Amino acid sequence: MVATMAPKKTVLVVEDDRESNRLLSKQLKASGLQVTSAAAVQDCVHHFAEYGLPDLIVLDLELADGYGTDVLDDIAYAPQRPKIVVVSANVYASHIPLTEYEDLIDDILLKPVSPRGLVALVKNLLSIE
Description:
Elements: E1 10-14, H1 18-30, E2 34-38, H2 41-51, E3 56-60, E4 62-63, E5 66-67, H3 68-75, E6 83-88, E7 107-110, H4 115-125
Parallel strand pairs: 1-2, 1-3, 3-6, 6-7
Antiparallel strand pairs: 4-5
């Protein structure tokens, strides 16, 4: 009898700061997750069209070509929506209203984000030990 391994959980890191994106992606990959990254809203649109929705999205609110809420709008009515972790420099002082997205967002982290803390949160949201 051959044991089959469950497929890796997929995570999309959406962050336009190159160094933050690299660091968060690297830490999530090291924890055994399948990670892809995007730096803009349009990157997300292309990713969803090509690969479908990931299991979880780490989403910056202010991106080079728009806002994280544009990404949330794109997935709001998906039959199986991913878990969403919003990261922002100051989400509470931001001019981007999040109240209408409360049902979509699973957690909010303020920058600077601890990569280890993010991994622990992601594993918890995805029910991974």
